[in-house]
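Dear colleague,

Thank you for sharing your sequence with our group. We've completed the structure prediction you requested, and as agreed, I am returning the results in plain text so they can be pasted directly into your records. Please verify that the sequence below matches your submission; if there's any discrepancy, let me know and we will rerun it promptly.
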Amino acid sequence: MRQGDNPNKINTSITSKYVHQVIVPVYIPNEEGYFKDSFAIFKLCIQSLINTTHSDTYITIINNGSCDLVVNYLDNLLREKKIAELIHTTNIGKINAVLKGLVGLNAEIVTVSDQDILFQKNWQEATLEVFTNFPKAGTVGLIPMFRSHRRYCDNILFDNLFSNKLKFRPVLNPNGMIKFYESIWITANYNKNYLKRILTLTSQNGKIAIVGAGHLVASYRKSVYNSLEFTHTADLLSTESDKNLLDLPALKLDYYRLTTYDNYAFHMGNSFELWMNDGLPKEKTTELNTLSVLNQQVIKKNNLILKLKYRIKYIFVKRIVFSKFFYKKFLKMKCLEEEYINNF
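Please find the predicted structure tokens below.
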């Protein structure tokens, strides 16, 4: 029998102080074979995240059926208030886990990270700089990658085809780029020109961002996910489900996919190496001024006009810009030196 009134009925509004949410799904079923070093690497990931985020950050961990060792570690983090939210599930897959983390909090920015990312100092500040200086930024990555302009950047290339704000520049941190490709076991016989030049976009006030982004770790306008076209995926892990949640939603709303010009995170993979301990930021980050991060910009509705624009830009870039006939002309037009054009 119910007696009295629930005191929560008195105050029906919720005010959240959090402007930035970080979601990390984790699946470590054991410490054998492929997962032998995964727990040690995951702990470095979480410690680097804790050490590099400001107090207005809401850290959400979704445990996808990991072993007891991981469960106990996560329970302690929550008990010690080092993370804000912990969800325990069976293994429902990476994207379904991210979908669980997206609901229930109205942050302006949401970062989705794999469990093997080593965050570096000032990554939040660098991310905010891109969002605030590029009004059309919808996705901001932290790890520069080879030729990222060729993936999910049709609207950037279309909109800025004849603009001098879109141009190739020297890679700012080639060592960081080398480390990323070492982490995914790509041998060193790749085209070394990719370590020298990368396509960038310059903002109205001269700030530089790289065109394109990966989805190992990236930040998104949270409002992008207000109009998702699906609520679950049928697979545990696939490039298709990653594409549908992490790559396409912002692009379909005509937002840009960018990456910080410098490298602000490392991908560790599943094999522990000594450099990872050295790369862990040891001190807690200083506080950032995060009020009105995105100036409360209203998200565009995923309507017929946006769908038409998305399709036109996609077809134009695929059939014209990336065509054998035009692509080298595009590279030259965007200030890539002649010595690189024939092998880029």
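Summary note from our side: The chain has a mean pLDDT of 89.

Kind regards,
the structure core
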